[in-house]
Amino acid sequence: MRSGTEYLLRDYYDPRSGVRRQKSLGRRDTTTEQTFHAFTQGKTEAAERRRAAVETLQRQAAVNRALRLGRVPEIGARIVRALDEAGLLGHGIKIVGTNALFAYEAVAGVHFASELMTTEDIDMLFDARARIRLAMNENVEERTLLGVLRKVDKSFARTSRTFQAANAGGYLVDLIKPERNPPWTVEAKSISGDQSDLEASPIGGLVWHESAQPFEAVAIDARGFPLRLVVPDPRAFAVHKLWLSEQPDRNPAKRRRDRQQAEMVAQVTARYLQHLPFETTALKSFPRAIVERAKPLFEAAPREIV
Fold this sequence. Notes:
The chain is α+β, with helices and mostly antiparallel strands. It has 3 domains: 7-66, no CATH class; 68-232, no CATH class; 234-306. 39% of the residues lie in helices and 18% in strands. The protein contains 9 helices and 10 strands. It has helices spanning 30-66, 74-85, 101-108, 114-117, 145-152, 206-211, 234-245, 252-272, 288-299, and strands at 7-13, 20-27, 93-96, 121-126, 157-158, 164-166, 172-178, 201-203, 214-220, 226-232. α3 (101-108) packs parallel to α8 and α7 (234-245) packs antiparallel against α8. The protein starts with 6 loop residues before the first strand and ends in a 7-residue tail after the last helix. The mean pLDDT is 88.
């Protein structure tokens, strides 16, 4: 009420600053009363639809658990959901590394061998070229990537490595980005610009992933709930993993696993994802020589996947 007159106000969060604001929709009259009534009724109906949807999801999740369909570890799934809710997943952030395998499994309808899937961390590829806005409220901490992680687990803290966070259980989150050439190219170091936030570590070879088309899938987490994943195209994943497996300065155990993951993803793609043929045009962000070396993996006789 202002000067004895009632107004209809709309609350919203500023998309740039995250600060809560109000906008007047006009003084109280027949029109604004109808607007308020329609909003209230719509809000009630939306809440009821949401309640019904949650009940359905919970029932289906129980079925998924009974059928042992849940594959994505719970902590990783919660982190990915938090990224999605913050408007980051697929908009400046992609999930790379071993966790990307869950997306390929889900679309192909297969299960990779457990030894290829075991992981105690999650790698997030930061596209420093993108303009990123976190869809958060006015809480300043939540407008950082570290704040997003702390919504999942309050114990997450940045380690001595500025690109890495860890929780009390030792689960690691790495923020990485492509190594530029020349290396002094000016670009964003973090998502928020806050010096206390995670700063992406430049890694060689990731520029190919950054420019490759993304791949989206809905997987099932360990609790049986659906989870949206945005990861690299499986063809790009296999080519990059093969390249990694041939790097002499990489840990030998990791090189062997890289090779196995490259082979399995390539064979699953060729056998079950035939809408993604192995074509150089789809891998134009990679050097041709690297693509040609990977081509035989997609033509080899398929192994037993499940």
